[in-house]
Amino acid sequence: MTITHHFTQDSDAVFALMTDASALQQRCSDLGEKNIQCSVEEQGRKTIVNLSRTVKRDLPKVLAAMFSAENTIKMKEQWEAIGSTYMGSYTAEVIGQPVSLSAKFKLKPSADGGCDYSIDYSCKASIPLVGKKVEEFIISQTAGGLEQEISWMKKKLG
């Protein structure tokens, strides 16, 4: 699934916010997540973000019997600056569950002086019989979470 968002700020400003450890911790906290740990490391043109947090989700009945509504997610994100465009990928795992997420993303300048953020993500759930349903649920939750994150960033950027 691919989602695109437009920011009125330039890609450098948006990238700076998306890779600032204290801003990421504040975003997670503001969105109701807990047990937040974040580190950011510069490696030449690359920026590595490690983010761990506990999230709570309302589960459909079919999944509530198998999963806890509260889970810890560990994400590793890698960005690379290529000219004025930032590109990268992430992997995320749900601790204790046979579920993983992966994504590729791009933050590129737009003609109006702002920038466009696009992310293409997928989910893999290695669970017999209900794996597809779990993947669909996680994708929908990821899309909803992304909307909240983008709204938070747009407010923060002004």
Describe this structure in words.
By secondary structure, the chain is an alpha+beta fold. The chain has 4 helices and 7 strands, in the order βααββαββββα. It is 31% helix and 46% strand. A 7-stranded antiparallel sheet has the order 1-7-6-5-4-3-2. The chain is globular, with a radius of gyration of 16 Å. The mean pLDDT is 91.
Q: Which helices and strands occur, and which strands form pairs?
A:
Blueprint: E1 2-7, H1 11-18, H2 21-30, E2 34-43, E3 46-56, H3 61-64, E4 70-82, E5 85-94, E6 99-109, E7 115-125, H4 131-157
Antiparallel strand pairs: 1-7, 2-3, 3-4, 4-5, 5-6, 6-7
End-to-end separation in angstroms reads 28 Å
Query: Low-confidence spans: pLDDT under 50, at least 5 residues?
Result: none
CATH class: Alpha Beta
Helix/strand-derived category reads: alpha+beta
Principal-axes geometry comes out as: globular
Q: Please state the CA-atom Rg, rounded to the nearest Å.
A: 16 Å
Tally of contiguous helical segments: 4
Q: What is the CATH superfamily label? A: START domain
User: CATH fold name, please?
Assistant: Alpha-D-Glucose-1,6-Bisphosphate, Chain A, domain 4
Order of helices and strands: EHHEEHEEEEH
Instruction: Please identify the oligomeric state.
Output: single chain
Tally of separate domains:
1
pLDDT averaged over residues = 91
Estimate the strand proportion. Answer: over 45%
Major β-sheet annotation: 7 strands, antiparallel
Q: What portion of residues is helical?
A: 25-40%
Strand order in the largest sheet: 1-7-6-5-4-3-2
Which CATH-level-2 architecture?
2-Layer Sandwich
Number of strands: 7
